[in-house]
Amino acid sequence: MTTSPIPTPEVAEKVFGDRTGLAVRYVEHLATSGIERGLIGPRERDRLWDRHVLNCAVLGEVVPADARVADVGSGAGLPGIPLALARPDLRIVLIEPLARRVEWLDEVLGDLGLDVVVERGRAEEKPVLRRWEGADVVTARAVGPLARLACICLPLLRQGGAMLVLKGASAPEEIARDAAAVRALGGGEPRIHETGAGVVDPLTTVVEIPRTGAPRRNRRKERR
């Protein structure tokens, strides 16, 4: 059974410019093999542009120019691939532990011709950390609560870099709940950004947490 093509919203060109055609192909991959291989739920097909691709791409509004970006738990390449399409100046690695997802990501990136690296593994594993630590930005979407994300993401960052986490309307409550744990892990004061004005509705909520220090246990070791 064939399915109808997914219409491309006019606003896509505002976000992706001359890479809009590549964004269209990415959505086609998500809508076909992405669903067939279990990376995207079938009910998401009609919401791929607004809920997933554009929602992730507007994260680029708060990413510095020419940044080194590690996308943790990339899954179907969200937010890493939309970010790479919208911001070709970025150097991006997609970190994903599951082999079937890594295989799919490699296939899609090969078809799109994007200069994006895929790393199979978990961000907290020492070999992965050694290869990719010192990032300017670490991104994550739907990976876990802020305290756990800080534990995973902050070690990958250089001092002064920031984790940028896509969250929902409950972001303020989550920040308040996990503030002490984030500080203990070397995180600074969280900041909430609302991105995507004129592109997505509702706006994309991004929680920014800078790396301002080392975890407390490491500080104790340094004093000995």
TrEMBL record:
Sites where the protein binds S-adenosyl-L-methionine: 73, 78, 123-124, 141
Coiled coil: none
Gene Ontology molecular function terms on file: methyltransferase activity
InterPro entries on file: rRNA_ssu_MeTfrase_G, SAM-dependent_MTases_sf
EC id: 2.1.1.-
Pfam families named in the record: GidB
Swiss-Prot/TrEMBL keywords: Cytoplasm, Methyltransferase, rRNA processing, S-adenosyl-L-methionine, Transferase
Compartment list: Cytoplasm
GO BP annotations listed: methylation
Enzyme class, first EC level, given as a word: transferase
Family that this chain belongs to: Belongs to the methyltransferase superfamily. RNA methyltransferase RsmG family.
Described purpose of this protein according to its UniProt entry: Specifically methylates the N7 position of a guanine in 16S rRNA.
PANTHER family referenced in this protein's UniProt entry, alphabetically: S-ADENOSYL-L-METHIONINE-DEPENDENT METHYLTRANSFERASES SUPERFAMILY PROTEIN
Protein's recorded name: Ribosomal RNA small subunit methyltransferase G
Species this chain originates from: Pseudonocardia tropica
Gene: rsmG
